[in-house]
Design brief:
The structure holds two protein chains of two kinds. Chain A is α/β, with parallel strands linked by helices. Chain A is built from seven helices and 13 strands. In chain A, the strands form two sheets. Chain A has a nine-stranded mixed β-sheet with strand order 9-8-7-10-6-1-4-5-11, with helices on both faces. The longest helix of chain A has 17 residues. Chain A is globular, with a radius of gyration of 21 Å. Chain A starts with a strand and ends with a helix. The mean pLDDT of chain A is 92. By secondary structure, chain B is α/β, with parallel strands linked by helices. A seven-stranded parallel β-sheet of chain B has the order 7-11-6-1-4-5-12. A five-stranded parallel β-sheet of chain B has the order 15-14-16-17-18. Chain B has a three-stranded antiparallel β-sheet with strand order 8-9-10, with no helix packed on it. In chain B, β9 and β10 form a beta hairpin. The longest helix of chain B has 16 residues. The radius of gyration of chain B is 21 Å and the shape is elongated. The termini of chain B are far apart. The chains are: A alpha/beta, B alpha/beta. Chains A and B meet through α3, α4, β7, β8 and β9 of A and α4, β7, β9, β10 and β13 of B. β13 of chain A pairs parallel with β18 of chain B, so a sheet runs across the interface.
């Protein structure tokens, strides 16, 4: 049994967009996308039940190794980082092609994703990767179990809950309600440095640099601007007159 | 420009979000906007799509399209886009639609821009608008090739009837890929949706952890009644079992854009914010002066909901007489 967990290294603190490249500035401090920690945790939980090997897979700049190491410190067994100048500026089409190529190579029984990337607010990558791998996909999993070569997921939708079963190999995106990720122990942090970690280039994956990264992107950022103003925002102290002040405000806005 | 809109339905109802996208598409200069409706009993919903601007509606009622799963839908859409030569496919965000759009992106090697709040033609080219970095930046995005795929924030557009007539209907034959048959829904628990629906309400009073206890939701319910609105809740209180999931607003719940949103004891975490920030007027009451919700409220009140809300409800009732 092999479980691959896809993780993203995201900027920490106040993120900014580089006005020249119109891309997210990834030069500063970064860390493991916190939604991905739920996917790592779920893989480790399944590992405890089934003795699976847990492989962390990430695409990003060299410093993404920090996030990969955190996943190893949590308890993952091995890491694969795809780092190549050619992947910078990849959109969904390129990112899904790179990750699918790496995952194809790993041939994991289960591929896990977190519910979204905290930087680009993307919440779609798993479905594109699953399509390329030609495997079933289930998103928003809040409970996940494996038995007899298939998986069972309970998930939230806008209308309630669905229970979905699918044969392995499959791709699952977990909701952040599925678990509470553990913090790496000191022993885990020390041990992470000794765990196998491999860095691959596009050439190693047999991918054409023209098909991914900025060169292969099918979408583009045209311009950056300020969001439309929300209008006047005011804050008042909630003293004895607060209820009346709210009523006056609603009346002024013709809402009552 | 040839536009195709993915319509989503639940039970016998077309979803307002996807009808809003259809109505918007009808304003983009294509006289023959088409829509796709997939699932059981959708044939009967096709005429309604006509009144929101669809000149043509593709329908498929295959059993494989009955459960709300994405991959069979990718198979059908890919065929429609290829054979119909559609240059642009538009989706209203939902758990299902996001997965369909991303699967289609990989299948057709087509660019997908997501989280869009608007789209317009600039010199004949389609440009999308996407708020980024907690909505501190507005980004104009484009597509370098066709087909272009666009996923809109739910509630981005009002579902306004365009006065279109009966659409042409084309029935699709369904051929599925092997991997699209793998997942199956073995159980569904639909939540009770009686009472005012938060998606359609003009006023929403929502409660968060700051209410302190599940019983305090009575404050939100009473204020909602006085304002003629519906009650919403944050993810945290739904997870804690204080209020049903059907009332959940935010990333994993519903996206709403009422005329008035009253947030009681809600800190305004990004996961909640994305579900309600397009509300017309936002009033927030929270005792933590540093709560992020005050940054995007029209009126913020730093105070105790337990003191202020009953007084406000009483004043509203008094006013109505």
């Amino acid at each position: 049994m092999k479980i691959a967990v896809c993780v993203k290294h995201v900027p920490e603190g106040a993120a900014r967009i580089d006005p020249t490249s119109k891309r997210l500035d990834r030069s500063g401090e970064g860390g493991l996308n916190h939604f991905d920690a739920n996917a790592v945790e779920e893989a480790l939980r399944l590992k405890a039940d089934s003795d699976a090997e847990v492989v962390v897979v990430s695409m990003g700049p060299a410093r993404a190794a920090d996030s990969v190491r955190k996943a190893l410190a949590m308890g993952a067994d091995r890491a694969l980082l795809i780092s190549d100048e050619g992947v910078a500026g990849s959109d969904l089409v390129g990112t899904s092609a790179v990750l699918a190529a790496a995952l194809e190579r790993e041939a994991a029984d289960l591929v896990l994703f977190g519910q979204q990337a905290s930087d680009a607010d993307g919440a779609v990558l798993w479905a594109a990767v699953a399509e390329r791998l030609r495997r079933p996909v289930v998103s928003q999993a809040m409970e996940l179990s494996l038995a007899d070569g298939s998986l069972r997921v309970k998930r939230q939708t806008e209308f309630g809950y669905d229970v979905i079963e699918a044969p392995l190999p499959a791709v699952v995106a977990v909701s952040d309600a599925i678990n509470e990720p553990r913090y790496p122990s000191l022993k885990g942090i020390m041990g992470a440095k000794k765990k196998p970690s491999e860095t691959l280039s596009l050439a190693d994956l047999g991918l054409d640099a023209a098909a991914v990264g900025e060169a292969g992107a099918k979408t583009e950022v045209l311009a950056l601007g300020s969001p439309p103003p929300r209008g006047d925002s005011r804050t008042i102290e909630g003293d004895g007159n607060a209820a009346q002040a709210i009523l006056d405000f609603l009346a002024e806005k013709r809402l009552v | 420009m040839s536009l195709l809109v993915f319509l989503e339905h639940h039970g016998n109802e077309l979803q307002k979000g996807s009808l809003g996208v259809l109505a918007k598409a009808a304003t983009l200069g294509d006289p023959d906007v088409a829509a796709v409706l997939l699932g059981g009993g959708v044939r009967a919903l096709a005429s309604e799509a006509g009144t929101f601007g669809a000149g043509k509606v593709y329908v498929a009622e295959d059993d494989a399209l009955e459960p709300p799963l994405p991959q069979a839908r990718v198979d059908v859409l890919a065929t429609v886009v290829r054979e119909g030569g559609y240059g642009t496919v538009l989706f209203a965000n939902s758990v299902l639609a996001a997965d369909v759009a991303a699967g289609l992106s990989a299948r057709l090697e087509a660019g997908l821009n997501w989280d869009l709040v608007d789209v317009a033609l600039q010199d004949g080219t389609l440009v999308g608008k996407r708020p980024a970095l907690q909505d501190s930046v507005s980004v104009d995005v484009g597509w370098r090739s066709e087909p272009r795929l666009a996923l809109f924030r739910a509630g981005a557009f009002d579902a306004v009837a365009t006065g279109g007539g009966e659409p042409e209907i084309e029935e699709l034959s369904v051929e599925l890929e092997e991997h699209s048959r793998g997942a199956r829904v073995v159980e569904q628990q639909l939540e009770d949706t009686s009472g005012p629906s938060i998606e359609d309400a003009d006023v929403i009073v929502a409660g968060g952890r700051g209410l302190g206890a599940p019983e305090s939701f009575a404050l939100a319910e009473e204020l909602a009644r006085a304002l003629g609105g519906a009650v919403g809740a944050t993810r945290a209180v739904v997870d804690a079992g204080w209020y049903p999931y059907s009332a959940q607003i935010g990333q994993t719940g519903k996206t709403v854009s009422p005329k008035l949103y009253v947030a009681l004891g809600i800190s305004g975490a990004i996961q909640h914010k994305v579900g309600m920030q397009s509300s017309n007027v936002i009033v927030a009451i929270n005792k933590d002066a540093n709560a992020p919700i005050f940054e995007f409220s029209d009126l913020g009140v730093v105070g105790d909901v337990h003191e202020i809300v009953p007084k406000l409800t009483a004043l509203l009732e008094q006013r109505r007489g």
